[in-house]
Design goal:
The chain is 23% helix and 27% strand. It has 6 helices and 13 strands. The chain has helices at residues 104-118, 145-153, 168-179, 207-216, 236-245, 258-273; strands at residues 43-51, 66-69, 76-84, 89-95, 125-131, 135-142, 190-196, 219-225, 250-253, 274-281, 291-297, 302-306, 310-312. It has a 6-stranded mixed beta sheet with strand order 6-5-4-7-8-9, sandwiched between helices. Strands 3-10-1-12 form a 4-stranded antiparallel beta sheet. The chain has a 3-stranded antiparallel beta sheet with strand order 2-11-13. Helix 3 (168-179) packs parallel to helix 4 (207-216). The chain is globular. It starts with 42 loop residues before the first strand and ends with a strand.
Length: 316
Amino acid sequence: MSGPPNLSAVVLLVAATLPLQANAQATAEATAPYNLTVSVNEVSLTFHAADLHGLPLDDLRLGELKILNNGKPPRRMVFFGLMQDDPLRAGLLLDTSESMQSQLAANRAISLRYAQRLVHRKIDEAFVMDFGYVSKIVQSWTHDPAVLASGIRQVVAGSENPLAGTALFDTVFRACFNLFGTTNSASNGNFILLFSDGEDNASHTSLPEVVDICQRANTAIYAFRGEPNPSLFSSGPKTLADLASQTGGRVSPAEDEDPAIDRDLQTIEADLRSQYRLVYNPIELKHDGAFHRIELTAPERVGSLRIRSGYYDQPR
């Protein structure tokens, strides 16, 4: 299936179907196991549903759901189904800029626990990036938890800071474009574990551009918030919240106590290993570059929904 030069109008949640190409144009072909082909006029999104006790729900029916796209119901529902136990593909991004150096040791320790827990099957894989003013791939894709742990231990303070500043957006963009863009884009299990205070003062890319590339690369951001400087006003917490909510992830404090780590691990695994996919035709796609809000309402037996808040419909 060939698309127009810009396919940003296609909504991609944690599990989209568009591979990336270096010229920012794409020719898309849906390769999901159920052989569903998605056109550029269809919105494709995934979501996780839990019951009132926080346990995954696997028996939702389409008739129980109500979806609004910019306040309007879809013109037509195309597909609805449950997907479970897909491969997990994780990017561990550790901020080593000046503002995060005092928290690096704790973040490395947390990352090691996540690496041991999340990458435990031959079909799971992960990579490690270190970033400050610039970014570096410390460990490329690997299925081996020991190799991944070795890469995490190589992350050191200040190694990517030839100049003062933090290029958070550039780093996430690079990870999604160059790394997740080369993996099986039909997977629903792409995600980034981002350890940062959210400060960005050196990037050439913007928040909408980063969100858009995460959508195309099927990648949710799970941010672990470092403590900002209390003496300075910080936009970092809002930046992390926006990245997470607009890609279908979460924000958590970077706690290094075992109970907190285990709780967050269980939450991430539940989000990613049991997801619904929903594809629909909106009444219109304006291609106006604006952010288009998605609202999904579920029955009372659903205690929580984990879903992206919307998408950027980029101009053609």
